Automatic annotation (TrEMBL):
Organism superkingdom: Bacteria
Database matches in Pfam families: DUF58
InterPro entries xref list: DUF58, vWFA_dom_sf
Domain DUF58 span(s) in chain numbering: 58-239
Organism: Photobacterium jeanii
Protein name (Swiss-Prot/TrEMBL): MoxR protein
């Protein structure tokens, strides 16, 4: 863990007390929309899974395809029409929260680092899941390795995992370089090896480095699980805008003004590589590249979410990520 002699800036790093305090903000949204029984998101709430010896739900007319073992013969004989008893299955959920804390997440041009957004939403989600009496586990991808914990219904385990998440978050700085073991493909490969079934998998990331193959593998994962992808992005990753930078981008004293007669060169770097926007043509080309790259990531995520008609959730770094997330999952 990196030692900080001064109090942490909550915009740049998250700390353990802040993650714990988010437990007080779990009201006003739910991760349990009404879905089909095969969906882990349905949980114990209004599952349409039918069976014998389960909780009685209703008595209704027989429909083609109903199991004749569920016929209520007394009602059928009395009414002259076949009736069946339907049941709901009460089942637990296991939720796996994947938190991206790689070096690309240590960036913001507005208010809050992407890494802080991911960590705080992970904490908020974990507390919500625990309040619903479900199991929650974590997969945290740092810049050096990927940490994994089994899903448990335990407050002590959530506290331990949030403390570990805060430590991994605080290890990030402008000098960090990701190891080969923490690529997005490595994360997807780990999820495949875990052989999850009937899990809700929530992925909080900027989706940096995602490939078409990764999306295909995640679609396979959706055959037995619900995968909710959350895209965390910064306005500067979409287009070069006049903003104050908290992250690793650097610029000259004034940003380029392509629509005016003057143009100020801009140098952009990540601490290892840098490039010069020396003229208006280069600036416009960079703008197009940023827009295309962001649109591609968004399109990949939309395709993934469309498989099970889950919402497309996109959060930014302007400091309103908790409210944005609650609204996106149907909260108020």
């Amino acid at each position: 863990m990196v030692e900080h002699t001064k109090p942490l800036d909550s915009r740049i790093y998250c700390d353990y007390p802040r993650l714990v305090a988010l437990q007080a903000q779990v009201d006003g949204f739910s991760l349990l929309p009404q879905r089909k029984a095969g969906s882990a998101l349905s949980g114990r709430h209004h599952s349409s899974f039918r069976g014998r010896g389960l909780n009685f739900e209703e008595l209704r007319h027989y429909q083609q395809g109903d199991d004749i073992r569920n016929l209520d013969w007394k009602v059928t004989m009395r009414t002259g029409k076949p009736h069946v008893r339907s049941y709901t299955e009460e089942k637990d959920r296991s939720v796996l929260i994947c938190v991206d804390q790689r070096s690309s997440m240590f960036f913001s041009s507005v208010e809050v680092m992407k890494s802080v957004v991911a960590a705080e939403i992970a904490a908020l989600t974990a507390w919500r899941v625990l309040k619903d009496s479900d199991r929650v586990g974590f997969v945290v991808s740092g810049h050096a390795n990927i940490e994994y914990s089994l899903s448990k219904r335990s407050q002590a385990n959530v506290l331990f995992q949030l403390n570990q998440l805060a430590q991994i978050n605080q290890q990030l700085d402008v000098t960090c370089r990701d190891s080969e073991q923490v690529s997005f493909s490595s994360l997807v490969g780990l999820l495949a090896r875990l052989k999850c079934r009937n899990h809700t998998i929530i992925m909080l990331s900027d989706w940096s480095g995602v490939t078409a193959d990764d999306v295909v593998h995640l679609k396979h994962l959706q055959k037995h699980n619900d995968v909710l992808g959350v895209l965390i992005s910064d306005p500067l990753e979409t287009a070069f805008l006049p903003t104050s930078s908290l992250g690793t981008a650097t610029s000259s004293t004034s940003l380029p003004q392509p629509n005016t007669g003057t143009f100020t060169p801009w140098v952009v770097g990540d601490g290892h590589y840098q490039f010069n926007l020396a003229n208006k043509h280069q600036f416009e080309k960079a703008q197009q590249g940023l827009a295309h790259h962001h649109a591609l990531k968004k399109q990949q995520l939309l395709q993934l979410m469309a498989v099970q008609q889950l919402p497309m959730v996109e959060l930014d770094t302007q400091g309103q990520h908790i409210e944005q997330f609650k609204r996106a999952v149907g909260g108020r």
